[in-house]
């Protein structure tokens, strides 16, 4: 990081409404000062204050991770393994007595063939998916506790973000949400700037994530986790998909972090020779068991003692991977040899039996495993990693969380919703609808067309919004689950923020549509009636969106959710009586209560013919008083005789509103209690 006296770094926040107040603390010349350009051309100088730097440092005590005899067993549906099996589940061991110790400042590689248990071990050490896990895991001399989550960073293999956000927005929202209250907003923004420099992503800081390169995305992923200055960093295959230059650059970043005292463990596939040698320790797994734990430079020497010699000039990492990917017999030999050699290392006195199974000096290439009862597990900073009872579980309170998430959701929904395509669709359809129902006369023969206008209005937008909610929710849910897994915010803050922020944005296009189509079609000239029809249309949209969210949250599989939505919507339309006037009674009874289209439609039908507008009679097909008086007139409400519109306008609104509340609540509960969408252990 360049010091303040060297240069001021001009940056554009790319983040609207940076509304910082107060003056910057002066005098700490050891920190870089960033000049942030705000909207309107003003600039703001940001640097981490002395207090902020101190608070950030306190977030990151040095931590030694020790794991002893860690095993993990899961129950797999028996039919998945053997279709003829009579059992329901078969036990499968994903990890088998894996032990190790990683110190602050160390960069440790976890390698092994695909499916050997690398991700499972990382998940287990990071305190994720702990069911079926046995053995001991210590952070310094304390056992894992959920409240340590914020000291541990987990960089997932997949780079999961809201890709419409710029790099800086992504980091800023995360910093505001995840850095604790006692850091000022200035300090949080300055921390974002520092991370941008540290991860070398300044040049793409204001680019939407969807447009940046794979390597940059990976660094944003890591940067997002580093904002909270964690002590331990777990990374799952951070170099996958990167070219060798980007991979080396990424490893340099990790090395810098290790030098700062972080404890880093990363799984990695086929690293280059340069990257392989740069690790402090290598843990090699096969079928959930350790087959080597030592310095990477010792790996080839170790395997050579068993007669496995690498050809000259061969990348050692490739050789090691080739070896463990060979047939079962060699893997079994390596597993047995490791067990024996680690015993030799422990006991130091070799029995005849042991000696016969192992090469004479192989154990010297291994790093000894922890014994499981080290009395002096290191606690260099002598800090308590588990917060005291009165400390909040969350970095910031419910309301600030909600406000930040509200703003993020508002920005995102605006970007997704206000596309040229969506405007063209809404306005184009409005004009086409207006032309189809153009300037309907106030006459008896327009009664069916007026009814179908309302039907179209109350089905098109709700259907569109529901499908949109249904399709977008699964991808959003993955991001929310990722953010929540690192203890960022409450689910309730997210849900309230989402509900509040999305509603106005989602309602703009249906409103524009109605303004055009309603007046072109000449529905009812009373402006109050127009507003009431609008209110019903928007409420129907919100009910449908809630139903979409509910299905998206409750059904794990998108295909299932789409099928359920299609069947449900068509059924609701049918039982709503739109196509069949004489429904069987038993169907009509529940259909009447479930079909939300029907409430909006019934109310709007009544609204349309409200106000005593004078209509011309034509032939008496729809209005009784016209039957003997084809040249006469009738008042609009007489048209309702033709329809079975049911309950009053107010009651229709109440039922719709009730549906909105029920569907939203069920969506929240589904989100809360139906978990593990990936189905992974
Ligand atoms: N929920 C689960 N149900 C069934 N099998 C599972 C589950 N979770 C993990 N496994 C299996 O456990 C084994 C270890 O998986 P893991 O993802 O840890 O491997 P890995 O070494 O990270 O693989 P890769 O390098 O391909 O990412 C694999 O065989 C995987 O199929």
Mind explaining what this structure looks like?
The chain has 681 residues and is an alpha/beta fold. The chain folds into three domains: 9-58, no CATH class; 65-365, Rossmann fold; 398-673, no CATH class. 48% of the residues lie in helices and 12% in strands. It contains 21 helices and 15 strands. It has helices at residues 50-58, 78-81, 118-125, 167-178, 185-198, 214-226, 244-259, 273-277, 296-304, 316-324, 328-347, 352-357, 398-417, 420-436, 447-485, 491-521, 527-554, 558-575, 585-594, 596-608, 649-673; strands at residues 9-12, 34-37, 43-46, 65-77, 89-102, 107-111, 133-139, 142-143, 152-155, 232-236, 263-267, 281-286, 289-294, 614-616, 633-635. Strands 9-10-11-6-12-13 form a six-stranded mixed beta sheet, with helices on both faces. Helix 14 (420-436) packs parallel to helix 16, helix 16 (491-521) packs across helix 17 and helix 17 packs antiparallel against helix 20 (596-608). It is elongated. The two termini are 40 Å apart. The model is unreliable at 1-29 and 349-359 (pLDDT under 50). The structure holds adenosine-5'-triphosphate. Residues 74, 76, 94, 112, 114-120, 679-681 line the site of adenosine-5'-triphosphate.
């Amino acid at each position: 990081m360049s010091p303040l006296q060297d240069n001021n770094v001009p940056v554009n926040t790319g983040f609207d409404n940076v509304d910082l107040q107060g003056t910057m603390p002066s005098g700490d010349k050891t920190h870089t000062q960033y000049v942030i350009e705000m909207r309107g051309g003003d600039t703001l100088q940001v640097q981490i204050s002395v207090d902020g730097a101190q608070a950030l440092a306190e977030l990151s005590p040095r931590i030694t991770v020790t794991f002893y005899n860690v095993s993990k067993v899961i129950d797999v549906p028996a039919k998945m393994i053997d279709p003829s099996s009579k059992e329901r589940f078969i036990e499968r061991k994903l990890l088998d007595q894996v032990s190790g110790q990683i110190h602050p400042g160390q960069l440790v590689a976890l390698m092994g063939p695909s499916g050997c248990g690398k991700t499972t071990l990382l998940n287990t050490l990071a305190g994720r998916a702990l069911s079926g896990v046995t053995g001991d895991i210590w952070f310094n001399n304390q056992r894992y506790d959920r409240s340590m989550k914020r000291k541990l960073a987990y960089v997932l293999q997949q780079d999961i973000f809201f890709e419409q956000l710029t790099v800086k927005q992504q980091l800023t929202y995360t910093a505001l949400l995840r850095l604790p209250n006692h850091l000022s907003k200035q300090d949080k923004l300055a921390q974002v700037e520092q991370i941008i420099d540290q991860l070398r992503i300044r040049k793409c800081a204001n680019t939407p994530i969807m447009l940046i390169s794979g390597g940059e995305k990976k660094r944003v992923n890591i940067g997002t986790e580093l904002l909270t200055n964690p002590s331990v960093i777990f990374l799952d295959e951070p170099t996958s998909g990167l070219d060798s230059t980007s991979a080396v650059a990424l490893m340099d970043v990790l090395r810098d972090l290790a030098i700062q005292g972080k404890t880093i463990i990363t799984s990695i596939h086929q690293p280059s020779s340069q990257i392989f040698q740069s690790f402090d320790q290598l843990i090699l797994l096969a079928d959930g068991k350790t087959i080597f734990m030592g310095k990477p430079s010792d790996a080839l020497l170790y395997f050579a003692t068993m007669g496995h010699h690498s050809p000259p000039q061969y990348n050692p990492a490739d050789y090691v991977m080739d070896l463990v990917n060979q047939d079962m017999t060699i893997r079994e030999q390596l597993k047995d040899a490791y067990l024996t050699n680690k015993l030799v290392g422990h006991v130091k006195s070799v029995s005849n039996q042991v000696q016969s199974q192992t090469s004479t000096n192989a154990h010297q290439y291994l790093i000894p495993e922890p014994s499981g009862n080290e009395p002096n597990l290191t606690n260099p900073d002598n800090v308590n990693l588990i917060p005291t009872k009165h400390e909040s579980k969350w970095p910031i309170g419910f309301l600030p969380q909600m406000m930040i998430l509200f703003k993020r959701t508002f920005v995102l929904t605006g970007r997704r919703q206000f596309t040229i395509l969506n405007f063209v669709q809404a306005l184009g359809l409005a004009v086409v609808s207006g032309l189809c129902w153009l300037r309907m006369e106030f006459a008896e023969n327009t009664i069916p067309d007026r009814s179908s206008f309302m039907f179209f209005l109350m089905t098109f937008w709700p259907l569109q919004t529901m499908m949109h909610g249904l399709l977008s929710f699964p991808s959003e849910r993955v991001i929310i689950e990722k953010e929540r897994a690192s203890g960022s915010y409450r689910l309730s803050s997210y849900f309230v923020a989402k509900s509040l922020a999305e509603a106005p944005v989602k309602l703009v296009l249906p409103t524009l549509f109605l303004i055009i189509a309603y007046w072109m079609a000449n529905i009812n000239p009373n402006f109050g009636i127009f507003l009431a029809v609008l209110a019903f249309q928007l409420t129907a949209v919100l009910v449908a969106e809630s139903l979409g969210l509910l299905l998206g949250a409750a059904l794990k599989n998108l295909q299932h959710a789409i099928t359920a939505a299609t069947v449900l919507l068509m059924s609701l339309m049918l039982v709503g009586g739109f196509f069949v006037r004489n429904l069987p009674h038993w169907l009509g009874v529940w259909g009447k209560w479930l079909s939300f289209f029907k409430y909006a439609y019934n109310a709007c039908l009544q609204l349309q013919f409200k106000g005593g507008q004078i209509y011309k009679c034509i032939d008496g097909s729809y209005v009784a008083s016209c039957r003997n008086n084809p040249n006469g007139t009738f008042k609009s409400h007489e048209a309702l005789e033709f329809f079975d519109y049911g309950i009053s306008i107010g009651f229709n609104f109440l039922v719709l509103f009730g549906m909105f509340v029920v569907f939203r609540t069920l969506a929240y509960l589904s989100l809360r209690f139906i978990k593990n969408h990936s189905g992974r252990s």
